[in-house]
Design brief:
The complex is a heterodimer of chains A (177) and B (345).
Chain A: H1 20-44, E1 66-68, H2 84-88, E2 94-100, E3 112-120, H3 129-133, E4 139-141, E5 156-157, H4 159-163
Antiparallel strand pairs in A: 1-4, 2-3, 3-5
Chain B: H1 17-49, H2 65-74, H3 86-104, E1 112-115, E2 118-121, H4 130-151, H5 155-186, H6 191-197, H7 208-221, H8 233-236, H9 246-271, H10 288-309, H11 315-344
Antiparallel strand pairs in B: 1-2
């Protein structure tokens, strides 16, 4: 039961038949058309963004370098050293050592605080699971992506570095842009 | 025009020897200084054709990029493969460079000028065999490429040089035949005389077919895209200069760009009326070289434009195009020109 389609049902696209004069003309015309196409690119101008000077703004939900946060009113750290971010981290790049808050030395709002909080950014895959795991929104993904350094050890970010404002703010896209 | 008679009458030997030396140095210096401009122009031009800036970091607008390139290349280690043939390997780039620069000697940059009471022709030497000299130099230039590829002792280089041999020989035939039409029309082989003969009309008009054939063959002669099968970086790494590095590679690079200059200048001289301007404009004599260089710049821009546009041909396409289309067209052009000249004489 084979179906033989009629001539009208078959869509045929054939290249033009090769021919001496016609072929030569075609090659010539196509060449000129190509030249026109490339020259139109010159007229169109340059699309390059000159990166170190010009930066493309990132989206608000862009996952860049982590930030640790403090309460704005009391100035206490939000992190309570629960290590849930370290447990959630698939790259195993977060190290948290917790210590007890004392009335004389109160660092965070909870019972304990993170005495050591290190993120090894050379291992981090910027998946954002730590942000999701954190019960107090103490760690969020920031917008900075320029983190290259000369030493691997310089890429281990300590708590002070993560708490600090970035030196240069990454341009952020406005709402709806 | 000249004071001698006899077999040397065609040659401008009336100039003192020191003028010859000064001219040689000036032409050599100017042409060599033009190369970095072409190189940076090509890289920036290709960038524009592809919607990007091209090199713009070194110096103002990236104009010092060739300087940085040269410093990088010159400070590189000189190396060669174990299997290479030493003296030949070192000699080949020199041949390429020498022949490319040698061909510039006969390009007329202007008419005979009176400089401080001394008549000076604004050209290296006005030989009576103009185009033949260029083709002779081009033929010797094959050795630079051939020996370079052969003596490298590498298969990519060898393949590249074999391709070069086939390609250059097959396209030189068409290139030569395209010029025959002009030579017949001008009734002379001297390039300055050919320019003088274009006083009324540039040869691009009556010899338009010859012009197109010459231009197309020139792309193959200079190993430029779309005929750069000799280098074919996608399949042959670098072709004949795969094994070259440092200053020897620089020599090949310069030879390629100087060849581009030579072809452009020949094209200007033979088809675009050399230093002549249309509409009866007669600028003072010192403008002539700038006119020639400006016209050559148009061709060099065209070379860059075509490189940005056309993809590289397949080897069999190259051969069939050269032998089946270009050569018959060139022959036909010569025949028709000859018939017209005889008929109107």
């Amino acid at each position: 039961m084979s179906w033989t389609p009629g001539d009208d049902a078959i869509h045929v696209v054939r290249p033009p038949a090769p021919g001496a004069a016609g072929g030569t003309y075609r090659v010539f015309a196509e060449t000129l058309r190509g030249l026109k196409t490339t020259f139109a690119r010159v007229a169109e101008g340059v699309h390059t963004i000159q990166y170190p000077e010009q930066k493309v703004p990132v989206y608000p939900r862009f996952r860049g370098r982590h930030r640790l946060h403090k309460f704005e009113d009391t100035g206490l750290e939000k992190c309570v050293g629960c290590s849930l971010c370290a447990a959630a981290c698939p790259a195993d790049c977060i190290r948290v050592v917790a210590a007890e808050n004392t009335p004389e030395h109160r660092v965070s709002a909870g019972e304990r605080y993170a005495a050591v909080y290190e993120i090894n950014l050379s291992r981090c895959i910027f998946c954002g699971y730590c942000e999701v795991a954190c019960p107090f929104d103490a760690i969020t993904m920031g917008n900075d992506y320029e983190m290259s350094d000369y030493q691997r050890s310089d890429l281990i970010f300590t708590k002070e570095m993560l708490l600090a404002e970035p030196v240069e703010r990454t341009p952020l896209r406005a709402e709806g842009e | 025009m000249n004071t001698l008679s006899g077999p040397l009458a065609e040659v401008s030997y009336y100039e003192p020897w020191w003028i010859q030396i000064i001219k040689a140095i000036v032409i050599f210096a100017v042409i060599l200084q033009v190369q970095p401009i072409i190189i940076v122009g090509e890289r920036k031009g290709l960038g524009r054709f592809q919607g990007r800036y091209g090199p713009n970091r070194v110096g103002p607008f990236g104009l010092a990029t060739p300087l940085a390139d040269i410093i990088k290349l010159a400070t590189k280690e000189q190396f060669r493969p174990d299997s290479s043939i030493g003296w030949m390997f070192a000699l080949a780039p020199v041949i390429s460079c020498v022949t490319a620069i040698g061909a510039i000697a006969i390009i007329p940059f202007g008419d005979t000028q009176d400089i401080f009471g001394t008549p000076v022709g604004l050209y290296g030497i006005d030989v009576s065999i103009g185009p033949l000299f260029v083709f002779a130099m081009g033929a010797v230039a094959f050795y630079g490429i051939m020996l370079g590829g052969f003596s490298s002792g590498s298969k990519y280089s060898f393949l590249g040089s074999m391709r070069a041999a086939a390609q250059l020989i097959s396209y030189e035939v068409s290139q030569g035949l395209a010029l025959v039409g002009v030579v017949m029309t001008a009734q002379t082989l001297s390039l300055t005389e050919i320019v003088h003969a274009q006083q009324g009309m540039w040869y691009i008009v009556p010899q338009f077919a010859g012009f197109l054939i010459f231009l197309t063959a020139s792309f193959a002669e200079t190993n430029r895209a779309p005929f750069d099968l000799v280098e074919a970086d996608a399949e042959l790494v670098g072709g004949y200069f795969t094994e070259y590095g440092g200053t020897r590679f620089t020599a090949y690079l310069f030879a390629e760009y100087i060849n581009m200059c030579v072809v452009s200048l020949i094209c200007v001289t033979v088809f675009l009326g050399g230093w002549l301007l249309p509409f009866g404009i007669h600028p003072p004599g010192w403008v002539d070289p700038f006119i020639v260089l400006g016209k050559a710049g148009l061709f060099i821009f065209f070379f860059i434009w075509v490189r940005a546009t056309l993809p590289r041909l397949r080897y069999d396409q190259l051969m069939s195009f050269g032998w089946k289309i270009l050569l018959p067209l060139a022959t036909l052009n010569t025949l028709v020109t000859a018939i017209i000249i005889v008929a109107t004489d």
